[in-house]
Amino acid sequence: MITRTGSAEWTGGLKEGKGQVSTKSGALSAQPYGFNTRFEDKPGTNPEELVGAAHASCFSMALAMMLEQEGISGVSIKTTSDISMDKEGDGFAVKKAHLTTTITADADRARVLEIAEKAKAGCPISKLLNAEITMDASVA
């Protein structure tokens, strides 16, 4: 089993409170987050943005592995993941993740897109999300 650790600290109430998010690796260290960064597009991060970065990077690595296993070379992958949060009852829920990826590879376009669909379903973060996952993929 592989375990990776992220942590958060929060002080105060929801709207006026402030938090910091960090990763054990140090890649993130005391990055600010709060109500305004989550719901008002103010500078700082938020949980959905962090999930989006995790999803995009996980998908890209899974796709690279699958293409390599098929003997496909010349690979370059650029991916974003838009995480959508909707009102649900008295709170909110993440209901959708949408991957947008551009893939360069020395292979047939249809084959690359077929493998991309498998990576979308198979990457560990896709498996973690209890949400609809869609994708726009293009081969450059």
Automatic annotation (TrEMBL):
Leader peptide range in chain numbering: none
One of the protein's GO biological processes: response to oxidative stress
A molecular function GO annotation: peroxidase activity
InterPro entries in the record: KH_dom-like_a/b, OsmC/Ohr_fam, OsmC/Ohrsf, OsmC_Ohr_Peroxiredoxin, Peroxiredoxin_OsmC
Residue numbers spanned by region Disordered: 1-47
Domain of life: Bacteria
The name this protein goes by in its record: OsmC family protein
Source organism per UniProt: Paracoccus hibiscisoli
